[in-house]
Amino acid sequence: MPIAVIDFETTGLSPAMGDRATEIAIVLMEGDRVVDRFQSLMNAGARINSFIESFTGITNDMIANAPPAEEVMEAASRFVGDAPLVAHNASFDRRFWEAEVSRIGWHRGVAPANAQSPFACTMLLSRRLYPEARRFALASLAAFHDLSFSSRAHRAMADAEVAALLLARIQRDLERRWDVFDCSHELLVKVQKAPKKKVADVLRQHVAAAAS
């Protein structure tokens, strides 16, 4: 099954504070291969302040000409389908995914099933697997692993593509270091939740179970 790597650009840090998404990008991965992409700006009727405009390069003029947020998110939800979700600093993207996809239900009576899908987090996984990196922002890990941004960082597709490259690197390292040849989303979530001292035990138990 493909894994969907997601990145949002937004007007701020929290939908609970009234912040809205301005752009979404999704990269579908099968193993370490990119098999499809989805990207769109969206107009949620929220103004972008000057700091965020400078930070992301997304302007109010760009958003004014973008399709409505509910339309974009319905298309994004269909694109993801049943694929499990991954993001870098996933607690951020999960909040916006849940908030924006749930708004679809206001118009059709029920939110899509994937509004509440669990996320694996490449930042938490990197903290467990690469403590020597010391800095775990996406740009820092890209430099640590010699991964390249295809365009400007802090635009959704550039960040989603680097997060997808980081996920592929994590999967390869789990295979090379731990003989994990079936790196499921469920295992990724289990590893990211494990205390650092228990990560090796979680991986050894997984390999032993797979071999039995």
Largest sheet: 5 strands, mixed
> What is the number of strand segments?
5
Which shape, going by the Cα principal axes?
Answer: globular
Give the strand line-up of the largest sheet: 3-2-1-4-5
Beta fraction? 15-25%
- Mean residue pLDDT: 94
Radius of gyration: 18 Å
Portion of residues in helices?
40-55%
Number of helices: 10
Helix/strand/pairing category = alpha/beta
Structural notes for this entry:
The mean pLDDT is about 95. Strand 2 and strand 3 (about 35-40) form a beta hairpin. Helix 6 packs across helix 9. Strands 3-2-1-4-5 form a five-stranded mixed β-sheet, sandwiched between helices. It is about 50% helix and about 15% strand. The chain is built from ten helices and five strands. It has helices spanning about 50-55, 60-65, 70-80, 90-100, 105-110, 120-130, 140-145, 155-180, 185-195, 200-210; strands at about 5-10, 20-30, 35-40, 85, 120. The chain is globular. By secondary structure, the protein is of the alpha/beta class.
What tags apply to this protein structure?
single chain, 212 residues, alpha/beta, 10 helices, 49% helix
